[in-house]
Amino acid sequence: MAAIHPPENPAQAFRFVDHRLIYLGFVHTCNEKEMVADRIGHEFHLINPRLQARALRMFDAGVGDGSVLTQVMESAHDRFPFVPHYVVGKEISIEDVRLTLPKMADRFVEHPLTVLTLTNMAYADAPWLALQKAGPDISWMEFAIRGDTAHQIKSQLRELEPFLTENWKTRVSPVTGNPVYERPAVVVIYREDRHFPLSSIIPAQSKADANYDLVIASQPYQARGKLEFKAKRVIAPLARALGSGGRLIGIHSQGGDPAEEIVRAIWPEQKSFIHSGLDIIDAVKHELTAHDAHAPGFTFDVDSEPLRYKLRPLSAEGGSIGTSGVNAAWIAATYVAQIEDQRMRETTSNDNYLEITRDVLARHGGQLSFNDAVYTIARAGL
Ligand SMILES: C[S@@+](CC[C@H](N)C(=O)[O-])C[C@H]1O[C@@H](n2cnc3c(N)ncnc32)[C@H](O)[C@@H]1O
């Protein structure tokens, strides 16, 4: 997405440049998404799908390339193989939707009782598949897949391309610099041969419910965004979308790890990770009680240990830490710390940054690890 206005704050500066390739590089060189999905999977031991909901209901507040959601759906199948799964994913980027859909083909094979809905709507609207304030008409499509092999299903999912091209368009908001949709869009996907048992949970326009058993908020905001924004605009609306007994799990980069050592060795003043899990929880608590004294009880928790993930080992070149490993470490560390493009360009004009990265890696036995903060919000069961 091209920049059209100078950014007002560092978080926006990071947003302005196209970090898509770096995001994809990061997803494949680090094991974060797998660790995140495993951690989320533990929540299923604390969740009991409700009979009256007729499904396990899950919401992903930012699908990205689909790595986390598909792996969470795998563990949901493992835990609840015979329960219908109602899954809604919010994702504004058409490129990410394109990367996610093929990953879903085998989910429909292993768990045929799946209704998957993707939408480009904002946090306050997406869980309900409806606009809270009046807005443009929603482009709504129901897509019943024929066939029962991954090959057949994947081929049909490709037929969604014209709908996506037409309806998943974005522009850059002149106010925030962030991408916003041109019009709200929803696509509801299920297997035609399972229409009968799924019919009571297939969402219909203006009639969809939130009531989630699980809300996934993995890296849902920019690290240096304002606390009020993170709590009020992102996490509190998601907590309100929980059904009774439902659980929200939030995960964000926390720093205090060897990856941050690289960043601080180059920019000693850099403070990328300004809010802890506890900061978010305190602000969300305040938000939920300030605006809704009758809100059903929520309980809040922060994992005592950060989720530790690492750069996958890259083949050593000549027995030492190879150039590709050093580059991958540099890219992952600066990506997670959300360093603005301009500062990256200034620093990479000579090779010092590679020496510094190599030194940090050598101090840690050639490994690079990262910390994520994890918190949960549970809504009381009835
Ligand atoms: C909605 S979010 C996350 C998508 C998905 N939930 C995931 O975890 O990959 C999308 C943005 O989060 C950022 N992001 C993803 N993983 C990150 C990480 N480990 N640390 C910091 N930012 C990250 C990227 O900028 C990406 O464009």
Task: Spell out the blueprint of helices and strands.
Layout: H1 10-16, H2 20-29, H3 32-42, E1 56-60, H4 67-79, E2 85-90, H5 94-110, E3 114-119, E4 139-145, H6 150-157, H7 161-167, E5 170-172, E6 179-181, E7 185-191, H8 195-198, E8 212-218, H9 227-240, E9 242-253, H10 258-266, H11 277-291, E10 298-302, E11 307-310, H12 323-336, H13 341-347, H14 352-363, E12 369-379
Parallel strand pairs: 1-2, 1-8, 2-3, 4-7, 8-9
Antiparallel strand pairs: 3-7, 5-6, 9-12, 10-12, 11-12
The structure holds S-adenosylmethionine.
Structure summary:
The chain has 382 residues and is of the alpha/beta class.
Description:
- The chain has 382 residues and is an alpha/beta fold.
- It has a single domain (30-255, 269-306, 372-379), classed as 3-Layer(aba) Sandwich (Rossmann fold).
- It is built from 14 helices and 12 strands.
- It has helices spanning 10-16, 20-29, 32-42, 67-79, 94-110, 150-157, 161-167, 195-198, 227-240, 258-266, 277-291, 323-336, 341-347, 352-363; strands at 56-60, 85-90, 114-119, 139-145, 170-172, 179-181, 185-191, 212-218, 242-253, 298-302, 307-310, 369-379.
- The strands form 2 sheets. Strands 1, 2, 3, 4, 7, 8, 9, 10, 11 and 12 form a 10-stranded mixed beta sheet that branches. It has a two-stranded antiparallel ribbon with strand order 5-6.
- Strand 5 and strand 6 (179-181) form a beta hairpin.
- Helix 4 (67-79) packs parallel to helix 5 and helix 10 runs antiparallel to helix 14 (352-363).
- The N and C termini lie far apart (45 Å).
- Mean pLDDT is 92; it is low at 1-17.
- S-adenosylmethionine is lined by residues 19, 23, 32-33, 62, 64, 68, 218-220, 253, 336.
